[in-house]
Amino acid sequence: MSDVRGYEATGEGRGEEATFGDFFALLKPRVMSLVVFTALVGLLVAPQPVHPVVGLAAILFIAVGGGASGALNMWWDADIDRLMRRTQKRPIPAGKLTEGDALALGIALSGLSVLMLFLVAGPVAAGLLAFTIFFYVVIYTMWLKRLTPQNIVIGGAAGAFPPMIGWAVATGGISLESVLM
Fold first, then answer.
1. Containing domain of residue 129, as a range?
2. I want to staple 125 with a disulfide (CB 3.0 to 4.6 A). Which of 2, 61, 121, 144 is the partner?
3. Has residue 123 been placed in a domain?
4. The CATH number of the domain where 72 resides is what?
5. pLDDT tens profile 116-169
6. Is residue 12 part of a domain?
């Protein structure tokens, strides 16, 4: 049996019952909190007010999108996470979850977050969220991270998008001000 990347499945994972905390850890909550904070800043400094329910829902869906990116990052990096002391206790290398769990959660939350943000805030905010997830997972995680030590500098652009998403929630668009944030 092999997974979607062609590596032989090891049979590792799920030695004991996975907990909610194991799945939550896949979302990289510390990184997710930074995404939420910067998106909130973009939302609050935008020149147009947002209904509080729309704002709260949008921030929730942006957080879910950030968490989805974290889960997909842990899925892709499971092989190197097993080797690094700093990452060996993450849910996949620790044997609490499988790579398939992370992939399924990441894909489901990505789709859900983009769809729900589209319904709540419109196509620009949802498109920016989709692009941010793509950039973090494909450009940073799958490509730059293993290619160059400058990965964090270039890949850091993914962290610049949440304020623009927050701005787009409020205004329905992108402006020079949101790009400069």
1. 20-180
2. 121
3. yes
4. 1.10.357.140
5. 999 999 999 999 999 999 999 999 999 998 888 888 888 888 889 999 999 999
6. no
Which token pair is 4?
Answer: 């979607």
What DSSP assignment string belongs to 99-132? HHHHHHHHHHHHHHHHHHHHHHH-HHHHHHHHHH
Q: How many domains does the chain have?
A: 1
The pair of three-digit structure tokens given for residue 132, joined into one six-digit string: 């941010």
pLDDT band at 12 (very low <50, low <70, confident <90, very high): low
Q: Is residue 61 part of a domain?
A: yes
Threshold 0.85, pTM exceeds? yes
pLDDT at 15 over 60: no
What is the Cα–Cα distance from 58 to 36, expressed in whole angstroms? 10
Contact predicate 177/167, CB 8 Å: yes
3-state secondary structure of 143: helix
